[in-house]
Fold this sequence. Notes:
By secondary structure, chain A is mainly beta. Helices cover 0% and strands 49% of the residues of chain A.
Amino acid sequence: NAGVTQTPKFRILKIGQSMTLQCTQDMNHNYMYWYRQDPGMGLKLIYYSVGAGITDKGEVPNGYNVSRSTTEDFPLRLELAAPSQTSVYFCASRPTPGNKETQYFGPGTRLLVL
Amino acid sequence: AQKVTQAQTEISVVEKEDVTLDCVYETRDTTYYLFWYKQPPSGELVFLIRRNSFDEQNEISGRYSWNFQKSTSSFNFTITASQVVDSAVYFCALSESTSGTYKYIFGTGTRLKVLA
Lengths: 114, 116
């Protein structure tokens, strides 16, 4: 049982390049989330999904896209990388139903845009 | 609006001192959950505790204790006899339930430095 896995661990992008951050969970969780953590700040929600085929914007969605074709995978796409997207990205999942359940976080992907 | 405030940006203590990390939250929900996470220098997020809005009992787990007070909308975290290994960034988070999305709203974190 691997939990939530994220790849890559670290990536350097040039301005204007594109990439996909991968997130996979093996716990059969319906809910999945993408957060970004800027230096010295808390985590902010980018996008979330309440099930396969269903996604919605969070607090800071500009510059990102997501898809959820399977329960297990929730990739985050950066189309035109900008220095402002330099951050650590965390993927999380949680089971349903109920408010008491905890989100399970992946180890994070560190992204540097130069 | 949902909001979590951690006013202490950074705290430094000497080993074996007690330290309290403050967390103040805002929500219109009557049902909600509060969390504390630890982020050590390695960067991962480590779950510490979850508390629901109907349970105001304090909780103790080893050297860790939590004080939840709805009257002041606070959920403070105390480390007793701090150790160097406690050095980390600590985040408080609020989970809202009204929309059914269970999104987290995080505070900005408190960096704790425990000096030997």
